[in-house]
Design brief:
Layout (H helix, E strand, L loop, with lengths): L1 H9 L2 E6 L3 H12 L4 E7 L2 H11 L3 E5 L7 H11 L4 E6 L2 H13 L3 E5 L8 H20 L28 E6 L3 H8 L10 E6 L3 H14 L3 E4 L10 E4 L5 E6 L5 E6 L11 H12 L3 E5 L8 H9 L3 E5 L9 H8 L4 E3 L4 H10 L12
Parallel strand pairs: 1-2, 1-3, 3-4, 4-5, 6-7, 6-12, 7-9, 8-9, 12-13, 13-14
Antiparallel strand pairs: 10-11
């Protein structure tokens, strides 16, 4: 009986929780251990202890507070990534300083982050727990595949219908929806886009309000295209990437016969996510029709599936990230299961697929999927 219990325990994701607050260590540990697939193997009260226990206990995943005594979280993260890399989820305060530090952590190799509330006894406790658990599982999954040789990509036969690929229509805009695992993924995709990208790119990344501005600045510093947090009435222009501000929906509209712009709004207020990929893509499908391109990438849930369906039904281009390269294969899976993806591609080829689609001559037919 003990052997069976030990065997079951060994299959669980082992998590080290690092925070200088005893209350936060307890709250985070309880959230993690509420899921039978996860176990907290220990906690650390400061940066020095976090580094020592990470080396000695070899956890599958760490949660790491940015502000800690003796050694701050960013210093701990640098040392871990240099000496014994592993998935780390940062816990960050909902402040401008916390946001900038979190974006720095993502650039240093952190897997993702969780906004740290002043108290985990709020009405948002269920959502916070769900996000934390999902990100820990995704992080553990990413570690399992770190040292595996990746097989050549072969899209599922049912994922794309070559005969239904749009003929003679070149996208005039790209709408992209992404969530869990998105910060790392976008840092790979956007820098690979050419400076002369002939269309505008609109992005919904599920992220709190204080974080989207610094995140856009970080991406802008890495990219040839211009990346910025969207503002109301911003024009949708070639070579420009607009990221929806946290807590606001982003929608497209036609300003004049040849000019398009965006609205920032809190409406609709009853969506699961604000911003919502569905809200963005539904507006893009309505405004651009067959000249719209929708892209759905890593993230849990189904946000974006309704918008992608609308783009698909209007005759636009729809692209999904493949399962193997997703941190969480939720949003793309929902689209794949609906049969509305015209192409499926690994993360490493998303930028190439976007560029190929928007730069092709209007009379050229999109390449069929190679099998």
């Amino acid at each position: 009986m003990a052997s069976s219990s030990n065997q079951q325990s060994s299959k669980r994701v082992r998590v080290l929780v690092c925070d200088d607050s005893a209350f936060m260590r307890t709250a985070i540990s309880r959230m993690i251990q509420s899921d039978p697939e996860l176990v907290v193997i220990d906690t650390a009260r400061d940066g020095v202890e976090a580094l020592e226990k990470a080396t000695r206990l070899d956890p599958d995943v760490m949660t790491l507070d940015i502000e800690m005594p003796r050694m701050d979280g960013l210093t701990v993260l640098r040392k871990i990534m240099a000496e014994r890399p592993r998935p780390v989820i940062m816990l960050s305060s909902l402040t401008q300083d916390g946001a900038h530090a979190t974006i720095e952590a993502l650039s240093l190799g952190a897997f993702d982050f969780i906004p740290k509330q002043s108290s985990f006894v709020s009405l948002d406790i269920v959502k916070i727990r769900e996000d934390l658990v999902a990100k820990i599982k995704a992080a553990a999954h990413s570690r399992l595949h770190t040292h595996k040789k990746v097989a050549p990509f072969t899209p599922p036969a049912s994922a794309v219908k070559p005969s239904s690929l749009p003929v003679g229509v070149t996208p005039s805009v790209v709408a992209l929806g992404i969530s869990t695992g998105g910060p790392k993924a976008l840092q790979e995709v956007l820098p690979a886009l050419p400076a002369d990208l002939p269309v505008g790119l609109l992005i919904v990344q599920h992220m709190p309000a204080a974080f989207t501005g610094p995140f856009a600045q970080r991406l802008n510093s890495l990219s040839k295209v211009e990346v910025r947090e969207a503002r109301d009435e911003d024009l949708i222009e070639p070579g420009t990437v607009l990221i929806a501000p946290g807590g606001w929906h982003l929608t497209a509209y036609r300003r004049t016969l040849s000019r398009y712009a965006v609205h920032i709004s809190k409406i609709p207020a009853n969506t699961l996510h604000i911003p919502s990929a569905d809200v963005l893509m539904l507006s893009v499908a309505e405004v651009y029709g067959a000249q719209a391109m929708g892209v759905v990438m890593t993230g849990m849930g189904a946000d974006g599936s309704l918008g992608m369906k609308a783009i698909y039904e209007k005759g636009g281009m729809t692209l999904g990230q493949d399962e193997a390269s997703c941190a969480v294969y939720g949003m793309p899976r929902s689209c794949a299961e609906m049969g509305i993806l015209r192409r499926v591609t690994p993360l490493s080829q998303v930028a190439e697929e976007i560029t190929h689609a928007v730069c092709r001559p209007a009379v050229q037919i999109l390449r069929p999927v190679t099998r």
